[in-house]
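Researcher: I'd like a candidate sequence for this fold, 301 residues long. If you have to choose between options at a position, lean toward the conservative one.
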C-alpha cells in the first residue's frame, strides 16, 4: 500500500477572525472552520485522521495563541468527528441526535472503513461522544460576535446542524452543502435534505462554507436545491412506474451537464434514499444495499 500523505490543505481567511481549513475533496477529506476571538477559539468540525488534524491545529496556532474552547460537530460522520479528542481543552457541542448516533456507532466501523477506503488513513481516528447537546438551537457569544447553531434534523445525515454568523453573513453548512459535486443524502433523507437547503438559501448569507469543496455563494445553494428537486420528481415517477432504484438511477434525465458528469455513485445513492423516503421509512434507516462498495472504486474521479 502506498504511504499515506495528508492532502494539501489551505487555511483561508473569510472575514476578520473567521477561517476555513479547506482540504481537497476526496472521500473522508472535509473542511473545518475556525472562529478566533480575543479570549478563545471556536472550531467547526474535527477531521478524519491525526495527520489532517495536526495540519489544522498547526494553522490555528499561527493565527491565535488562545485555547479552542468550543468544538462544534455539524453531524455525526467520522470525517467531521474522528479527531474530536485532539481538542483537549474544548467542550464538544452537537445536537442531541448527533450524539446519540455517535454513541451507536458499531465498534468495528473504523476498522471496516480501513478496508473499504484503503486510500485513506484512519490513524488516530476514534469516536468521542460530545460533551454538550442541544435540541433545536444554541447561540454562543464570542465578545460581540454571535454564533448561531441550528439543528435541521435529518437530511444529509440523521442530524445536521449549520453554524451561522449573522453579522458577518457567513454560514458553515456542514455536509448539507457540498460544492463541486451534487448533494448526498444517503445517510439521511432526500426530502429532509431539500428542506435543509431551502432554509440555508433563506439565510441569504454572503459566504457558504461547504462541508466538502470550495467556499461558494447563494447561487450554488440554489443549484443544489434544484438538483434535489429534479432527482425527487424524476425518482418519484420511476417509483410509481414500478422501476427499481437502480433502474431509476440509470434512466433519470438530470438535464444539466455538470450534474450528469458527476460520479454515478451520487445518483445511485440519491435514488436509493429517495425510494426509502417514498416508502415512508425512517430517515437514516439502514438501506438494504451496500452502496459504500461503490465509493473506493470511484476515488479520484
Ligand atoms: Zn457527512
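Model: Candidate sequence:
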Amino acid at each position: 500500500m502506498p504511504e499515506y500523505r495528508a492532502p494539501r490543505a489551505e487555511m483561508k481567511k473569510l472575514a476578520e477572525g473567521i477561517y476555513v481549513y479547506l482540504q481537497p475533496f476526496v472521500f473522508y477529506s472535509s473542511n473545518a472552520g475556525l472562529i478566533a476571538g480575543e479570549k478563545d477559539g471556536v472550531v467547526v468540525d474535527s477531521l478524519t485522521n491525526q495527520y489532517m488534524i495536526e495540519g489544522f491545529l498547526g494553522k490555528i496556532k499561527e493565527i491565535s495563541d488562545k485555547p479552542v474552547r468550543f468544538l462544534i460537530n455539524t453531524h455525526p460522520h467520522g470525517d467531521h468527528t474522528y479527531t474530536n479528542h485532539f481538542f483537549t481543552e474544548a467542550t464538544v457541542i452537537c445536537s442531541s441526535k448527533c450524539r446519540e448516533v455517535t454513541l451507536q456507532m458499531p465498534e468495528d466501523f473504523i476498522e471496516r472503513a480501513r478496508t473499504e477506503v484503503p486510500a485513506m488513513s484512519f490513524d488516530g481516528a476514534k469516536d468521542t461522544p460530545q460533551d454538550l447537546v442541544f435540541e433545536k438551537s444554541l447561540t454562543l457569544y464570542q465578545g460581540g460576535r454571535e454564533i448561531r447553531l441550528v439543528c435541521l434534523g435529518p437530511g444529509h445525515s440523521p442530524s445536521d446542524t449549520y453554524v451561522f454568523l449573522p453579522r458577518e453573513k457567513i454560514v458553515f453548512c456542514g455536509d448539507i452543502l457540498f460544492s463541486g459535486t451534487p448533494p448526498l443524502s444517503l445517510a439521511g433523507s432526500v426530502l429532509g435534505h431539500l428542506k435543509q437547503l431551502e432554509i440555508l438559501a433563506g439565510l441569504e448569507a454572503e459566504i457558504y462554507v461547504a462541508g466538502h469543496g470550495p467556499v461558494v455563494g447563494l447561487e450554488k445553494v440554489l443549484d443544489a436545491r434544484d438538483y434535489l428537486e429534479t432527482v425527487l420528481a424524476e425518482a418519484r415517477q420511476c417509483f410509481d412506474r414500478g422501476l427499481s432504484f437502480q433502474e431509476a438511477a440509470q434512466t433519470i434525465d438530470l438535464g444539466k451537464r455538470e450534474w450528469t458528469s458527476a460520479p454515478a455513485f451520487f445518483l445511485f445513492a440519491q435514488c436509493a434514499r429517495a425510494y426509502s423516503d417514498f416508502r415512508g421509512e425512517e430517515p437514516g434507516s439502514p438501506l438494504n444495499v451496500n452502496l459504500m462498495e461503490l465509493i473506493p472504486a470511484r476515488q479520484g474521479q
